[in-house]
Q: What sequence folds into this?
């Protein structure tokens, strides 16, 4: 991989240990992915924020980095492990809280904004169209490449952190605009948000880097989000191209039978102890829509809603009045707030949420939002 003189000097340690380590990560990742060189990026979104996922070793690594590393570009962060406003409600152990606060503090010292969201496209000012960015959250990376006219690799927590420190990222074929390597032809009419999540999960297994999805039309924001969330869990794909194909890549069909097969894999319960909404976190539009559909009714079952703190407002107040627990700064995935000790199973419309909840030992009943509201509003 070709490096500039300044990059070579930084790789040799001329800009300090933190930048040297960052360039080592980027060069290793770039060479593995066939990158030509490094390119400047204007924004990095960082994962590795939840203490439940990175643990004590990750916390110590970030604390060490924060002693010398400073971010050169705008940096935002994924959700952490709890909502600070309601942490006492869940009885989390003190070591967990201390570790989580240390992680948040380290990112802040290095220069990150305390966004704590897995759906930055919903609440943050996005870079100008066509820009190069480095996003580690999988659904956000896919959304950026597919719907925001941005370009990013499907970054790891390490490569996104390295990009925040250096302002650079490998110019891989994906980032350079490589076309789809597979096509999924949708053979069903007007799929809902759950079916779009199943479609994304299916498509993520079909393609390597980029997938064309034909026959879907123009999905709304909720369906686009579900597509990205589902795809982000099932493979390495990082881009969706909507539209009819030209026969330039292998094509497979996705209809009711394929949707049922994916759903059977993730739908592991019949009913649940609680309803879980917001994986990815619900943005302002989704919260407003949910509040409107709830109307003056109340949920008859415990309902937990995850959203970015920046999305809170009248809609969240309305949902809390309807009996919802509205949590910010955290999400359903790999959360200490939803465990197999606390809930044997949950009901959700999120394929991404179902994937990670099942991985954590919590069984899931997958239902579209319309069915959840029909069944659990009094």
A:
């Amino acid at each position: 991989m070709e490096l500039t003189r300044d990059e070579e000097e930084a790789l040799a340690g001329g800009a300090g240990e933190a930048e040297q380590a960052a360039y080592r990560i980027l060069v290793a990742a770039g060479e593995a992915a066939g990158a030509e060189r490094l390119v400047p990026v204007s924004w990095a979104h960082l994962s590795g924020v939840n203490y439940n996922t990175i643990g004590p070793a990750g916390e110590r690594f970030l604390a060490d980095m924060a002693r010398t590393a400073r971010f050169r570009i705008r940096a935002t962060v994924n959700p952490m492990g709890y909502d600070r406003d309601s942490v006492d409600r869940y009885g989390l152990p003190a070591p967990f809280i201390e570790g989580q606060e240390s992680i948040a503090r380290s990112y802040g010292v290095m220069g990150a904004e305390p966004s704590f969201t897995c759906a930055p496209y919903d609440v943050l000012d996005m870079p100008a169209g066509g820009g190069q960015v480095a996003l580690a959250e999988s659904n956000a990376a896919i959304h950026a490449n597919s719907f925001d006219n941005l370009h990013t690799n499907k970054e790891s927590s390490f490569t996104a952190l390295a990009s925040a420190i250096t302002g650079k990222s490998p110019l891989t074929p994906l980032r350079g605009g490589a076309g789809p390597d597979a096509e999924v032809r949708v053979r069903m009419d007007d799929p809902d948000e759950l079916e779009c999540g199943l479609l994304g999960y299916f498509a993520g297994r079909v393609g390597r880097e980029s997938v064309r999805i034909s026959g879907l039309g123009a999905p709304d924001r909720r369906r686009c989000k579900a597509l990205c969330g589902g795809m982000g869990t099932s493979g390495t794909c990082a881009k969706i191209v909507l539209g009819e194909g030209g026969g330039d890549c292998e094509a497979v069909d996705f209809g009711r039978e394929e949707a049922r097969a994916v759903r059977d894999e993730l739908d592991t319960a019949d009913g649940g102890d609680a309803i879980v909404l917001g994986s990815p976190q619900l943005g302002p539009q989704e919260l407003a829509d949910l509040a409107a559909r709830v109307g003056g009714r109340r949920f008859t079952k415990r309902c937990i809603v995850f959203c970015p703190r920046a999305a809170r407002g009248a809609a969240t107040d309305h949902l809390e009045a309807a009996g919802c627990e509205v949590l910010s700064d955290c999400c359903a995935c790999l959360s200490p707030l939803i465990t197999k000790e606390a809930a044997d199973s949950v009901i959700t419309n999120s394929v991404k949420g179902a994937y990670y909840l099942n991985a954590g030992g919590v069984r899931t009943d997958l239902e579209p939002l319309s069915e959840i509201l029909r069944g659990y509003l009094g």
Q: What stands out?
A: Residues 94-110 form the longest helix (17 residues). The chain has a mean pLDDT of 95. The chain has three domains: 5-170, 182-264, 268-376.
